[in-house]
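Deliverable D5.2: sample structural annotation.
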Amino acid sequence: MDVADDRKAVPSSEIDQRTKLRKRCELATVLNFLSVFEPLLKSKMKVTAEDIEMAIIEPNDLLAKLHVMLLKGIPPVSKTLDRTDAWVTALCKKLTDWWPWVADGDLPLTENKGKEISKYKELEPTTRLVVLKALCEIRLKQGDAVSYINSTMKTGSEVSTFRKKKICGDERGTLYWLDGNDSIGYRLYKEVRGFESKQNDKGKGFLPVIDVQWETLATSLEEFREVVVEFSSSKIMMEVVLLKSTEERKGSKTTKTKEAILSGFQFYGLTRTCRTRTAVCYTYDEYDKRISEAISVHQRQPKKRKMAKEREDVKS
């Protein structure tokens, strides 16, 4: 269904909330995680990105099922997890233990004798999104996630299966990302980075701060076509590359068009740069870094096994 049709079907307040969510890179992170790790999560929920957006805006059974599915993979698992709304209390416990490692700022939800259930429903949708993104990152840190990456790559899968690369970028800090699959849908994102100077806590000197603006450019075939029209008059080489890749495949069916766009854009992908980061950052690149860390664990394991075998040979 096109966005124009969506707007006829839902109240304007929900459209406003959806717009706010689509300006957050945490949404792209959640959608990517649910898509890439679907086999690990053993999810049988065939939901679209729009379904997930609406569940975050108006908490429903889908949102509960998503949280329960993720919580069941983070030991120790609560025995009461499947009871109505009990997952909120279990969520609070996990967030209390993990929040400093997966998120920034104050913890928005804590266990409070059952009051946390009603408080969760009163949170702003963007805050519920941040909480869900944090839960995805906690799930990513579990041992079976690393093992899943390990076993998948042994079958010949490429690193790009897990690590999403930007499709292109420029020196001014503008990046483009394309992500998704047939089930959850395909989306084109634009990320604009700027740098500001912020005075340190002691009032002496200034520290560089990354300012990130995130935009969801396209979520449907019609919106992809609008991007083509917009870029057709562009003189920026990066946008011309996007235009060329999109136009070459515009005549296919909806799903195949998006698949072709995905593969075509990845052909023009640029290599990433190395830079110093803070412990926690809400950019899509930072989530990609966490995937890379999990992959590096896999890549080190064969070397460790080889060294262990060599030691055993020396002893014998």
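Annotation notes: Residues 1-8, 250-255, 257-282, 302-306 have pLDDT under 50 and may be disordered. The beta strands are 168-169, 174-181, 185-199, 206-218.
The annotation will be released with the project's public dataset once the embargo ends.
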